[in-house]
Amino acid sequence: LFNFSASGNATGITVDRGILLGDLSLRLQLERIAEELGAQALGGLTEAERDELWLQSLAAHPRYTIEELRWENSGGRATFDGFFELTPKLGQELEKASAQATIPQTVIQEVFKQEKGMKAAMLNLLLQSFIKEGAELGLLTFEDEVISFDMQYDQSADNYVLNGQTHEKSEMQAILFKWL
After folding, report:
1. For the whole model, what pTM was predicted?
2. What is the pLDDT of residues 73-111, one digit of tens each?
3. Widest CA span in the chain
4. Residue 146 — very low, low, confident or very high, per pLDDT cuts 50/70/90?
5. Which of 63, 81, 90, 141 is most open to solvent, judged by the fewest CB atoms within 10 Å of its CB?
């Protein structure tokens, strides 16, 4: 089976007229991506032939893992990780998934405070509303000034576990619809 791992870092990321987000680092792993696929097989093929060979060699249960996505600025460090697995045929359905995030409120506020005037106050108000509504719906937790999220999905069990609470698919859809 073909597996792939990668990592990378970006420092001093700025957006929107010089707003400093901070630094990002990422480690990811792609597992069980393809069977019997080697560099030699790809050498003399056209682009269309390579694409066809790639699709034919896709493995039964590929798994894509974000081992860690870390966002750091002077407000602290936020972390994200998770994985997802696909059913045997590409493009069908998600078989399993997991996602976790821990975001200190100060990391987000560090970005917001760079805005001028009323915009910073409005962004902070939106953040507080997002946290309050998300916590009321059980989509996230907010404790000790840290926003957390923990979700698992297993198609065979046909349910979601969100922050320790089990929900059927229809319940999860209703929760997300209320939040939007």
Report:
1. 0.78
2. 999 999 999 988 776 655 557 788 999 999 999 999 999
3. 60
4. very high
5. 90
Coil, helix or strand for 44?
coil
42 or 157: whose pLDDT is higher?
157
**Distance in angstroms (rounded) separating the CA atoms of residues 159 and 43:** 44
The residues, any chain, with a CB within 8 Å of residue 132's CB and separated by 6 or more, are: none
**Cβ density class 134-147: b for 16+ within 10 Å, e for less:** bbeeebbbbeeeeb
**Backbone phi and psi for residue 54, each to the nearest 5 degrees, phi listed first:** -60, -45
> What are 82's two structure tokens?
């998770």
Cα separation, 8 vs 27, in Å, equals: 7
